[in-house]
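User: quick one, sequence for these C-alpha cells?
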C-alpha cells in the first residue's frame, strides 16, 4: 500500500496470528519501513481489561503490548492516521535501533 508514509505493509486483522505477522514483518523490514498493524479504535476495541473479553480482544491486547514493547526499546516508532469513518490506522515504523 502506498501512502504518505511511503510503502506500508498492512496487517490482515487482529487475530491470534497477528503477533506472528508483526514479528515476520519486523525481522524482514529495513529501517524506515512501516506496517499498519491495526485499523479501528485500538483503545475501545481492546475492551475493558477487568471485564470478560473475546479471543479477538485478547489477541488485540497482546498485539498492542508487543508493539509497545518494541517502541519502548527504541526499535520502532508509533503513529496513527485518522480515517474518514472515525477510526484510525495504527502504524509502526522500524528505526534500526537495537537491531540485531
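Assistant:
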Amino acid at each position: 500500500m502506498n501512502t504518505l508514509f511511503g510503502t506500508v505493509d498492512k496487517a490482515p486483522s487482529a487475530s491470534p496470528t497477528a503477533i506472528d505477522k508483526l514479528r515476520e514483518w519486523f525481522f524482514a523490514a529495513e529501517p524506515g519501513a512501516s506496517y499498519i498493524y491495526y485499523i479501528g479504535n485500538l483503545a475501545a476495541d481492546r475492551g475493558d481489561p477487568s471485564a470478560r473479553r473475546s479471543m479477538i480482544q485478547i489477541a488485540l491486547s497482546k498485539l498492542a503490548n508487543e508493539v509497545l514493547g518494541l517502541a519502548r526499546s527504541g526499535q520502532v516508532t508509533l503513529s496513527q492516521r485518522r480515517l474518514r469513518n472515525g477510526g484510525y490506522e495504527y502504524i509502526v515504523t522500524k528505526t534500526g535501533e537495537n537491531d540485531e
